[in-house]
Amino acid sequence: MDIERIRADFPILSRSINGRPLAYLDNAATTQKPESVLKAIDGFYRTSNANIHRGVHTLAEEATRIYEEAHEKTAAFIGARSWREIVFVRNTTEALNLAAHSVTAKYLQPGDEILLTRMDHHSNLIPWLLAAEIRGVKTVMAGVKPDGTLDLDDFRSKLGPKVKVAAFSHVSNVTGWISPVRELIRWTHEAGALAVVDGAQAAPHLKVDVGGLDADFYAFSGHKMLAPMGIGVLYGKQEHLHRMPPFLGGGDMLETISVKGNACSLCLKELPWKFEAGTANVEGAVGLVAAMDYLDAVGWDAIIAHERALTRMALESLGAMKHVRVYGPEDPGGRVGCVPFTVEGFSPNEVATAMDAEGIAIRSGFHCAQPLHQSLGLPSSARMSFYLYNTPDEVRRALDVLDRLR
Amino acid sequence: MTWREVVHHIDDTCGQEKDFILLLAQESKEAASEKIRAALTVDRQIGDIMLQGKINGVEATFFCNGKLILKGLGSREALETFLEKLFG
After folding, report:
1. What is the pLDDT of residues A100-157, one digit of tens each?
2. Which of A202, A250, A339, B62 is most buried (CB neighbours < 10 A)?
3. Any residues with CB less than 8 A from the CB of A44 and at least 6 apart, and which?
């Protein structure tokens, strides 16, 4: 992989921060955008901008075709059987809120259980907790092991007969741990429950095949994989999406509404439109397609190998620093390029601000995963996260700052 | 000079520690930095990156890029009282 050539595609990477070259190591939060994505969005507005599905004029037809093709390309990108299984949303959070609301409304009864995990991002916890409260459903929580990875035995033991849904991450946004998602889904199905997977940290870093995984639902965000903010995806098996009620109501999700007196009857549009109320984020879909094309062109084997090499380098160096404690699995092959850590004598905010002073962007806080931090006995942590455009030199610069913090 | 003129942005961070991260306004950065340095009892200096210590009994870390982290203040009201005392 020619890193310098890749970096040349990302204009922002030539910036300086505080007089130092930017080293952007906050990719688990959001990623930078290549020229091809920026140009695709710009090109859409310059040549084809119109609202979709509501006009017979040429621009509306073009925009509609572009938007529908984006569903097709996304389906192919993640191995879905049909583009009708792809619902565009704002982000993973909205995707999981949709799933939680509509799955709970359709499939769960008071007394049923939803299995969650302490490893998960708030986006895959809070929507379920809220939906469970409304529906009178109980939630159960699988624990984590001391290294922050999911306790698989605990997960299996809690997959009892009352569990109707299990919601879990493919990859942890804190430790970068790659869960045995295929097994988690299989165990969930064996228990007679639906499997809802948060793929926000997996889709940018691994080649995802939702069909092969047999996930019932799989959610991810565009902005964490080079696409713009404001576009996300909920994949759902058609058999479920057909049965589920919409999460949002409004324009463009309805065939007809018939009013007789005070009675209204609705005829919803076919999939996926019944879940996509309101004006669509067409520019987001355009950017997502350009981002997926970019990642495919670089090649997944190369991306994975590159990130793994950076992660190995970081883990080995941090492991030798006695004042630094790293969390997550020790094997770089078992995680994506995401490394949480704490530094003795410095708060994570101090560490991140010190990095910023040197032009290095990392994140501090609990990364919207407070239950996991509580399990690890941490109020918060610092986190470096890598992507295809990061270099060993950038990682070395971050390690050098940490070496000075003692 | 009032603290509202000096402080460009306040970020109250997530996590149980609830640090406040203050970014100084560019136009008054030098004068504000001088006041901070004068008020800071330094416990530790990390190269040219940061100074750790206390300002009026409050744990503070001052960074070379004009950011100030304050720990343990607990509330926005306490922060504003602290800043009024420091900057006016």
Report:
1. 999 999 999 999 999 999 999 999 999 999 999 999 999 999 999 999 999 999 999 9
2. A339
3. A63, A66, A282, A283, A286
For tokens 């750790």, what's the residue? B52
Classified as helix, coil or strand, A39 is: helix
CB contact under 8 A, B47 and A404: yes
Name the residue facing A380 among B15, B44, B49 (closest C-beta): B15
Could you give the count of Cα atoms lying within 13 Å of A404 in the half-sphere of its Cβ? 17
Q: Which helix (H) or strand (E) holds B22?
A: strand B20-24
ipTM of this complex prediction, to 2 decimal places: 0.91
Domains of chain A: 3-32+299-404 (3.90.1150.10), 39-248+276-296 (3.40.640.10)
A344 touching B (Cβ < 8 Å): no
d(CA B28, CA A384) in angstroms, rounded, equals 32
Question: pLDDT tens-digit profile of B30-68?
Answer: 999 999 999 999 999 999 999 999 999 999 999 998 999
pTM (predicted TM-score): 0.96
Query: For the domain that residue B30 is a member of, what is the CATH number?
Result: 3.30.310
How far is A208 from A182, CA to CA, in rounded Å?
Answer: 11
CA-nearest of A195, A172, A176 to A184 is A195
Question: Which residue range is the domain that position B28 belongs to?
Answer: 3-87
Helix intervals (H) in chain B: 3-6, 29-39, 76-87
Checking if the pLDDT of A367 tops 90, the result is: yes
- Cβ of A379 and B46 within 8 Å? no
Closest partner residue to B13 among A349, A373, A405, by Cβ? A349
Taking the CB of residue A109, how many other CB atoms lie within 10 A of it? 11
